Amino acid sequence: MRKAIIDGFRQLVSRPIYLIVMVVVPMVTAWFLIDLMREGLPLQLPTAIVDLDHTTTSRRTARNLAANELVDVVYSPETYHDAMELLRKGKIYGFFMIPSNFERDAVSGKETTITYYVNLAYYVPGSLSFKSFKQTAVTTTGGIMVTSLVSAGVDEGMIRNMIQPVVTQVHPYGNPWTNYSIYLSNSFIPCALQLIIFQITAFSFLQEIKRGSSIRWIQDAGGSIVKACFGKLIPQYLIFATVGMAMLGMLYGFSHFPLNGSTLGMVAAMLLFIAASQAFALTICSIIPNLRFALSILSLIGILSFSIAGFSFPVEQMYGGVGIFSYILPIRYYFLIYINTALNGYELYYCRWEFVGLIVFLALPFTMLWKLKRYAYHPVYIP
């Protein structure tokens, strides 16, 4: 075992690309994502307002929209077609349109329509623009109703109770700042690490078969495929574990993201997650002992993990045939532990099945190592 581990370390230091991909790439990726979303929420999204009325009410509406921190009114096109052209070119994420005779119709009680258009091809900025436009429209409508009823002699206090009979208070739990980075960074960064672990693990094993050196690799481990695999995995695990701890330090120490539960629980989850990712990749390598095919499949699984692991869409709302695939990914279990421990502050007891899921991954390779050993003793590279 000792010789196998030493050979594993030698392999990692033999080519600079190993340490670059294992250390530099994940740390730069983590720093990039944290810095990219350091504001927590996209602010000052470029938008436009088309004012066809040019009255006191329409100008007040435009000022209310411009005062919203989520949008930045950078254009004031004169027509609908000019605004739509800006939207098609990607210069704005949406525009707010006030029709002609807006003030006159609203004050006289006639039906009038405020229209807003958003580009939801860019989901997050489009949704935030929609939120700002809708808030401005509701505020404008309420303001016009107050003005009209007051001019008719109705008490202003009664009017406000009629417009908003129930006052709601919103207290977001777990992320009261509605900070996108708290949620996305804690999911995307480990998922990117999982993708890198998949690639490094598959490459380090299957290149032995590709180069025809797998026979010597097994013999150096005393003929034991288990010792040979551990000799490669342990050095990689130590490096990935160090990177994982550095990532946790960046998230909860440097960025001060909420950690309402057990710190040791998140550390244990990260360490188990790294080992589970290695075990998953080794299982795929044993099933498909071809470098090109295994790397392609693991790359596909790693990329799809960003979607089907439940980061952006609840697994419970996915089609059953799609949602079930999320539970064959190590990142899914780490993600659930993060939600329950770091955000919701649950005791580790309530995350026990997620930890069990990660541990189960560690046993998977032992069911297929015999196949990897057979191919290692009879290396045939299929380009």
Shape: elongated
Low-confidence stretches: none
Structural class: mainly alpha
Total strand count, please? 4
Sheet having the most strands: 4 strands, mixed
End-to-end Cα distance, whole Å, is 32 Å
- Strand line-up of the largest beta sheet: 2-1-3-4
- The pLDDT mean sits at 85
**Quaternary class:** single chain
Classify the beta-strand content into a percent band. Answer: 5-15%
User: What integer value in Å does the Rg equal?
Assistant: 28 Å
Tally of contiguous helical segments: 16
Order of helices and strands: HHEHEHEHEHHHHHHHHHHH
Share of helical residues? 55-70%
Description:
The protein is elongated. With 383 residues, the protein is mainly α. A 4-stranded mixed beta sheet has the order 2-1-3-4, with helices on both faces. Helix 8 runs antiparallel to helix 10 and helix 11 (263-287) packs antiparallel against helix 14. The chain has helices at 2-14, 16-36, 56-66, 80-88, 102-108, 123-151, 156-163, 180-211, 214-220, 225-254, 263-287, 291-308, 320-323, 330-343, 352-363, 369-377, and strands spanning 45-51, 71-75, 94-98, 115-118. 34% of the residues are buried.
